[in-house]
Design a protein that fits this description.
By secondary structure, this protein is mostly helical. It has 6 helices and no strands.
């Protein structure tokens, strides 16, 4: 946090009111304060490690079952784990990311004593996101405060890096912030 930087795009400055900009910056500062990049990085490392172990299990199942004592059911268990484990790790990683977003929203409301600023900003960003960005793709979606691909069809909300704007606004409205 001592060396963190929060950048604001010209587009955000042109789009938002001062109240909304303050709320968005407070949201990002809350991520910094709570070491969310570190938390996300650790979750990604664990997900990557599980994926590597799953690949080792696949290779073991494909190439390690040549002896006469090998049990076929063990091979099927290894293959099932090799498929299921990385999927479960990804879902856990994304759930952590979504929970950190809710906490950053709460942090913004607490820092500004004004949850309505972020509610307005999220609503505005959501309406603009109905026209998806041409240069955004799933690999960069986590870098946006609102999903830039929401105008495109999504396979499942299970694989979103951010909670829906509707969920975030509902949570913000339910906060009891001391002014």
């Amino acid at each position: 946090p001592k060396h963190a930087v929060v950048a604001v795009t010209e587009g955000l400055l042109n789009l938002m009111s001062e109240e909304e900009i303050e709320a968005v910056i407070a949201h990002e500062l809350s991520h910094v304060k709570h070491y969310d990049i570190l938390t996300g990085s650790i979750a990604a490392v664990f997900a990557g490690a599980i994926a590597i172990l799953a690949n080792i299990a696949k290779m073991g199942a494909m190439f390690g079952g040549n002896n006469k004592n090998s049990n076929r059911s063990n091979i099927f268990v290894l293959i099932a784990l090799a498929v299921i484990a990385p999927l479960a790790a990804t879902i856990i990683q994304l759930a952590i990311s979504r929970s950190r977003e809710f906490e950053a929203d709460r942090g913004s409301a607490e820092l500004t004593s004004n949850p309505n600023g972020l509610i307005k900003a999220l609503s505005k960003l959501e309406s603009y996101s109905k026209n998806p960005l041409k240069n955004a793709d799933p690999s960069s979606a986590h870098m946006f405060i609102v999903n830039p691909l929401s105008g495109k069809s999504n396979f499942s909300s299970l694989f979103r890096t951010h909670p829906s704007t509707e969920e975030r606004i509902k949570a913000l409205k339910n906060l009891r912030i001391k002014a």
